[in-house]
Amino acid sequence: MSVLDSKVPKGPIKDKWTTYKDKIDLVNPANKRLIDIIVVGTGLAGGSAAASLAELGYNVKAFCFQDSPRRAHSIAAQGGINAAKNYQGDGDSTYRLFYDTVKGGDYRSREANVYRLAEVSVNIIDQCVAQGVPFARDYGGLLDNRSFGGVLVSRTFYAKGQTGQQLLLGAYSAMNRQIGRGKIKMYNRHEMLDVVIVDGKARGIIARNLVTGEIERHSAHAVVLGTGGYGNAFYLSTYAMGSNVTAAWKAHKRGAFFANPCFTQIHPTCIPVSGDHQSKLTLMSESLRNDGRIWVPAKIEDAKAIQAGKLKPTEIAEENRDYFLERRYPAFGNLVPRDVASRAAKERCDAGHGVNATGEAVYLDFAAAIQRYGKEQAHVKGLDENDAALVTQLGKAMIKSKYGNLFQMYEKIVDQNPYETPMMIYPAVHYTMGGIWVDYNLMTTVPGLYAIGEANFSDHGANRLGASALMQGLADGYFVLPYTIGDYLSDDIRTGAIPTDSPEFDAAENHVKERLDKLINNNGKYSVDHFHKRLGKIMWNKCGMSRNAKDLKEAITEIATLRKEFWQDVKIPGRADEYNEELAKAGRVADFLELGELFAKDALHREESCGGHFREEYQTAEGEAQRRKEFQYVAAWEYKGEPSDAALHKEELQYSDIEVKERSYK
């Protein structure tokens, strides 16, 4: 076991990033034209990085497995993006965003990276406004803000419930400008299946053209992964169905350490599971918790009646409702962090107070907000505040202006009008804080291989605050990587183009082809989804919202067994040299089956509860997470063959600017 060097600059935390930029080596504009960079993934992190690097003058090759960068999963983000601009004048600052992020991550993130994130967050909003992103504005025309879980200020900029889409279109337009100039060569419908290492450095990738099945070699002086998270290991999640771990896992198998894989976020406001027919889950934005109140029936008999369809939520009197987040966490109420809200909902449902037919749902109720906004609007307009029908009408109009598309989406899926009856929500897998280990430069343990956005582990610790995913992706792509990668590439200005006819490229391509041939010729009995669903059940039941040693040990054994079954019994129709989505899916599930075992191993190793990682053996008398100081480190795993053989490396986490204390939202 080694101790990892994060390469964090010396000096006061407020000066680290500025001092770093002042002292790094640069590549002059004429020499940037001599350097190639591969960017895999074109969501917010990859798209913004590709656009920024091309704007600087590098030659960029960008790859996505979708038919267009516009289909990246970033487009699904709803509620907003954080930035410490303090437009509301409510006490926000760079330090407070830094503090909230480290505390929200349960003191398991790297302090220096988080401060840098908070520092550059203010630039992101200006960048996006300049691109034409239509952020919401207040009455005076200034950019509006709302609050998200885990904070006491309003710092979240938003565009209704479509923030991710609008931000992605901004990055996409910046990419398109560079594609038009010839500085970005775009490879749609291409999937990275290996990293090529030459003389110890990442010098290219092997990709499969998903339309023709052709295997291609692409070289560069550096490779950047912006490929998102691995939550689809659970099968049911809020991720796009194509989201996968393959690029990150191939990097891991080539020497990139995988950090904190068990740190997975469960989002509290998702539409509940309705049956085994489902292939994915749908998120309801956390922004809804600004105005929606979360509750369950206080009486078991009322909950049973609702589950049986004999009672409606609107028929339960106020005094018979348990607003459990407001009761347990009075300081933050419904805006506690996601991990806290998710476990609280699970506890109430496990105790028998859940609603809907499965008993695994709680209510998110907007009735009080409709009345509050309605009375306010009636007062502003000089109308009768005692006219109940008028107040309700005005209140619904206000809620519609803030969350209309989310309400419409909910009604289409559930076939219930959320203006008239409370929404039903339940926690679901939503984001992964773990990922490829990177240092302060965003470089992995493989020289020349970088990981940005959700693909790396660095900024969110054991729990991500809402609206910080978009912030990190754009911060890494627009404002961090373009500096740090230049420092590395300054040594490559005389290297020349990287040839693709080397033995290293030959070996990597042969490895990819052998694996594809094995899959396509397996001729087993079961579909890819058969194995993916079984993996998902193991992951959710034994590595989900709460974990214990017994379940985790069983999960490790069961996943290893399932992986053997997969390679014996998976059946893939068609050929490898054609469009074959089932073959592409099989490769991704094969990687999930390896990651899933490492996930469980990491969760078993971490004998504490922190953030999204809740070990039942380590909780307070009140059922809260119980952190242990001896686990105040990043667990980074080195590939050694089978996941069970992975070797642990530690990065000790030091906190000099924030006091590590009990994480309380009461």
From TrEMBL:
<dbReference type="InterPro" id="IPR003953">
    <property type="entry name" value="FAD-dep_OxRdtase_2_FAD-bd"/>
</dbReference>
<dbReference type="Pfam" id="PF00890">
    <property type="entry name" value="FAD_binding_2"/>
</dbReference>
<protein>
    <submittedName>
        <fullName>Fumarate reductase/succinate dehydrogenase flavoprotein subunit</fullName>
    </submittedName>
</protein>
<feature type="domain" description="FAD-dependent oxidoreductase 2 FAD-binding">
    <location>
        <begin position="36"/>
        <end position="470"/>
    </location>
</feature>
<dbReference type="InterPro" id="IPR037099">
    <property type="entry name" value="Fum_R/Succ_DH_flav-like_C_sf"/>
</dbReference>
<dbReference type="InterPro" id="IPR030664">
    <property type="entry name" value="SdhA/FrdA/AprA"/>
</dbReference>
<dbReference type="InterPro" id="IPR036188">
    <property type="entry name" value="FAD/NAD-bd_sf"/>
</dbReference>
<keyword id="KW-0285">Flavoprotein</keyword>
<keyword id="KW-0560">Oxidoreductase</keyword>
<dbReference type="InterPro" id="IPR011280">
    <property type="entry name" value="Succ_DH/Fum_Rdt_flav_su"/>
</dbReference>
<dbReference type="InterPro" id="IPR015939">
    <property type="entry name" value="Fum_Rdtase/Succ_DH_flav-like_C"/>
</dbReference>
<feature type="domain" description="Fumarate reductase/succinate dehydrogenase flavoprotein-like C-terminal">
    <location>
        <begin position="532"/>
        <end position="665"/>
    </location>
</feature>
<dbReference type="Pfam" id="PF02910">
    <property type="entry name" value="Succ_DH_flav_C"/>
</dbReference>
<dbReference type="InterPro" id="IPR027477">
    <property type="entry name" value="Succ_DH/fumarate_Rdtase_cat_sf"/>
</dbReference>
